[in-house]
Amino acid sequence: MINIAIIGGGPAGLSAGLYATRGGIKDVVLFEKGMPGGQITGSSEIENYPGVKEIKSGLDFMEPWQEQCFRFGLRHEMIEVSQITKKDNHFVIHHADGKTTESKAVILATGGRPKRIGIAGENEFWGRGVSTCATCDGFFYKNKEVVVIGGGDTALEEAIYLTKMCQKVYLVHRRDSFRAAPITVEHAKNNDKIEFLTPFSPKEIKGDASGVTGIILQNTQTNEIKELAVPGVFVFVGYDVNTQVLQQENGSMLCECDKSGSVVVDLSMRTNIKGLFAAGDIRINAPKQVVCAAGDGATAALQAIAYLDSLKH
């Protein structure tokens, strides 16, 4: 039996591993089916992490985290976790291949996944012109026109990034106001390559055998229909938290979650199940910032250490 199982290898999971192992805990395992790093590795620019003055891509930013976090003995298992259950006073980590690992404590840091709009053509052309990663796919649209859908920080930041290679970026949002930070909105509006289309809602993504060829939009106030001939549509409309591993055989969740699926925790990242902690974007009221996720991971690890100490007495 291991001491701490960390599920998820983003900033929260890696920070949890660093603080747990540096805190003297042995047998700490990070379960992440791919290379650690998390969603942030798809970001085009990181410029607001304290102490890092250079502007870096998410991939470059996360690269040294792995070396540092594994330095003190954190073990990485490239295994997909399908479920977490509780048995007596410990947890059972169920692997996708049917095997299991038992652990005294668990830190859940599985983050989320991009939401889809749910319009015609989106699923059909997903990966063939419909993308959620400007860093990954922006190069394919060099000197072309693309559409970005969304009104949050991610949508506007990625729209700005796409102007570095694209001829023009249409920013589509269903409202006239934006959820993004005012400074981000200002940067986008000052970029002459970005055309704001508000209040417009996407209705259908068109395409053929070669991929996306255009998108149909509708004005939410006047019902005006507008069709844009573009080869690329980037969707940034939020994401769903990855809490599938918490679902039990009877359909209930292992711990308390809110109506949106986020894990309910206190300020110490403790769930209502002793020994189970949640950190990062998966928890309630998550700011969805790297620095906050890292802080969550450190907090969860320190609390997990205290929990393990309590088991000895």
TrEMBL record:
EC number, UniProt record: 1.8.1.9
This protein's UniProt keywords: Disulfide bond, FAD, Flavoprotein, NADP, Oxidoreductase, Redox-active center
Domain FAD/NAD(P)-binding: 3-297
Keyword NADP included in the entry's annotation: yes
Cofactor: FAD
GO MF assignments: thioredoxin-disulfide reductase (NADPH) activity
Keyword Cell division on entry: no
Enzyme class: oxidoreductase
Catalytic activity line of the entry: [thioredoxin]-dithiol + NADP(+) = [thioredoxin]-disulfide + NADPH + H(+)
Record's GO cellular component terms: cytoplasm
Annotated GO biological process: removal of superoxide radicals
UniProt cross-references to Pfam families, sorted A to Z: Pyr_redox_2
Annotated cofactor note: Binds 1 FAD per subunit.
Family listed: Belongs to the class-II pyridine nucleotide-disulfide oxidoreductase family.
Assembly: Homodimer.
NCBIfam families noted in UniProt: TRX_reduct
Protein name, entry field: Thioredoxin reductase
Native source species: Helicobacter fennelliae MRY12-0050
